[in-house]
Amino acid sequence: MIRLLVVPSKFLLLLGIFECGHTYKFSEHRQERQPNNSYGAVNVTQAMKVPLYKELSAALPLVIRNLTNYSGLINDKGAPPNPNITYHFGELENDLAMLSDKVSGFYAVLHEMLPDGSGPFLCPLNKQSHIKECLLMATCLLEYHVPEEIELAAFTTYMEMTQRFIDVGWTVLKSGLLMEEPSPILNMDAVPPKKYQCDLLKHEKVTPSTAHSMLQVESSESEFESDGATLAMSSALIQASQASFQILDSHQVGSSVDATILKLHELWMPICKHLNCNHSSFWDLHYASYRQTASLLELKSGYAARRAMRREVQHRVKLEKRFGEFVSENHEYYSRLYNGTHFPPGRRFVDSNFIQASSRGESMIGHMRDFANEISTEESRAIRLFDHVEYRKFQKDRHGRRPVSLLQDENEENEENEENEEQEDSEEDEDEDEDEDKEVAIDDAEDVGSKDMEGVPALVEEDNVLEDGTEDDKGSRRRRRRRSRRRARRRWIGGRRRRRRRRRIFDVIANVVEDVAAFMESITGCLGYAIEFASTGYDYEVVPGAVSISLGLSAGARQALEDLISKRSPTLAISMDFGFAVGVTKKLLWSGTGLGGSVTCEVGASCEAYITVAVIGSVNIPTQSAACPMGPTWGAATCAQCFGGGISSMCCNMGFKGGSNDCR
Ligand SMILES: *[C@@H]1O[C@H](CO)[C@@H](O)[C@H](O)[C@H]1NC(C)=O
Ligand SMILES: *[C@@H]1O[C@H](CO)[C@@H](O)[C@H](O)[C@H]1NC(C)=O
Ligand SMILES: *[C@@H]1O[C@H](CO)[C@@H](O)[C@H](O)[C@H]1NC(C)=O
Ligand SMILES: *[C@@H]1O[C@H](CO)[C@@H](O)[C@H](O)[C@H]1NC(C)=O
Ligand SMILES: *[C@@H]1O[C@H](CO)[C@@H](O)[C@H](O)[C@H]1NC(C)=O
Ligand SMILES: *[C@@H]1O[C@H](CO)[C@@H](O)[C@H](O)[C@H]1NC(C)=O
Ligand SMILES: *[C@@H]1O[C@H](CO)[C@@H](O)[C@H](O)[C@H]1NC(C)=O
Description:
Keywords: Signal. Residues 1-23 form the signal peptide. Residues 397-482 are annotated as: Disordered. This is Apple domain-containing protein. Helix content is 54%, strand content 13%. The chain is of the alpha+beta class. A 6-stranded antiparallel β-barrel has the order 1-2-3-4-5-8, surrounded by 4 helices. It has helices spanning 2-5, 7-17, 27-33, 44-48, 52-75, 92-102, 104-113, 119-122, 131-143, 152-180, 200-206, 210-221, 228-249, 257-275, 282-295, 302-329, 331-338, 352-357, 364-375, 379-383, 388-399, 410-447, 471-498, 500-523, 558-565, and strands spanning 530-543, 547-556, 574-585, 589-601, 608-619, 621-622, 633-634, 637-655. One 2-acetamido-2-deoxy-beta-D-glucopyranose (NAG) is lined by residues 59, 62-63, 66, 101-106, 384-388.
């Protein structure tokens, strides 16, 4: 598959090399990419230059991955040592230098994109205080290309991921820095000059009705009449969100929580009438609001849709965080409320339409893949987004010890290739069948009912797992796609034989081309899934303030649960629901990297899971449940329900016996 995708780049590469005088016939491929046939006249290097916004579309998720990793690393000093992590935190100066390194590729792209050479001034490499604003600027730079070059659905994924990192992950990262040196300067974030501010949220705060009136004007004056209702709902939601903030902020310590909550419920009632949610549950409203965001994808006015989408995502993340703080501040009230009445949050974290729209295949990840394939002819530019050490290691593993040679026996290699191709074809067919089986199995599982919320598997293996409906359509579309790719490849194989001798010379370079795409594939393998979890279990700290785990018994022996919580290997088999967070964890409020799911552990096993993680903020509401067989509290552990979700940024190993992890 990977090899397939890079085919066009390879040809372009050859073209680049033979720029001066040589002619090649591969118009088939060239035409796909470049309808203009007067190629000879133009500077090919110039013509092939991948637009910067494409590079940014790959750099943004990668820098968030880098920073999420960093935020785990810097907060996780007390965790059991992990041989895979060689860098040790603790020296502020070195740690800041490392932070600069983690954003270096992203900044290089931004510097080229920002107008009038303002890049190094707006996003100076050695100042952490500018990172937050520069992430926002990046979303604005991408927004200009919505919906023409970047679909709104993909942009939604970019926004969800970035905003969640800015509001949750960045705070966690800052607290790690502050732990090293409690200096208020470290806690500040730079504000760019007005001219470069693209984030409307700030202006809205000054005049709360601006957004509303703007939307009103825009929708009534616009020719897109049918967009009106959706946009009106959008602005109502945003107003409700702002008003909720005001109500929460005006709540005084010691004043009646009931009164405050009643005000909120009244505020949410009309919204919930529209969104079909339970206005007396914040979480129900919160999750329902994703459906509103999904409905923006239907709008005809691309401009109004992308603006509304940005605002909805920003307000949702901020209110979720604020509400979590409120619950945590008033945890006694909430544990009374939830004691004995174990509520899962009313609905799925993300609306299925939303998941479908922002699901991996053709979305954010699609843009990243496209970029890797197009850019791979300029290796140096491609790998500035990567961790160079990891990339070189990857290359070494990939090619083994044998250096790429120009003197191999031609025939031998050719036969080998043919065999491989055939094998791949049949493997692909098998994969296809497996995919379909898996999809069916998961559909069945989802029909089981509300229980499935509690055991949402953390490791999502298939693009389509989260999508609902029209499986047949998709299956056949995918099959069609595969068939045509296979055809393309066969064509390519034929051409390749003819050019065998010439190709030999370029093997080394072609390998590099493939490496870029393959490495991108490997580091995005865990990125971009919309994931959610809700699990009930004993919530306890493994590393005080930094790593917390929640373990709930779903099947097996209670003794095994006791073993794990006491950091022993289980003496009996156990199936459990879990949640965990690495970052800043307080008793009721987790923020950082984490997730949850279900896992089964064998007798004597170390009990680990390899899971996809996201930046999460989870409120852990104390509860009583069969998942907590030792009662609502057990030693330092509290039976609580944790839930949350996000767009995944990486994978890590989590050890449930003792909290060893590499989520960093
Ligand atoms: C092809 O590109 C050249 C150089 O950029 C330009 O002058 C010419 O008009 C283009 N032709 C077509 C058919 O687009
Ligand atoms: C083509 O453009 C690139 C980048 O602008 C430049 O470095 C190179 O010298 C140009 N090549 C020719 C043949 O004009
Ligand atoms: C996290 O950062 C460390 C230190 O730079 C690195 O060794 C590790 O590979 C990174 N992990 C991921 C998932 O990026
Ligand atoms: C270290 O990395 C290797 C390979 O990535 C993995 O198999 C191993 O489990 C990791 N070790 C720990 C302690 O996480
Ligand atoms: C991620 O971090 C590595 C260093 O570990 C750096 O080389 C790379 O440029 C960073 N990626 C981005 C997109 O900034
Ligand atoms: C709405 O949620 C509350 C708890 O927040 C619950 O008591 C009530 O029964 C729910 N109403 C409906 C109609 O589900
Ligand atoms: C919850 O209820 C149990 C008994 O049902 C009681 O023992 C416990 O104290 C209650 N917890 C809180 C926080 O009210």
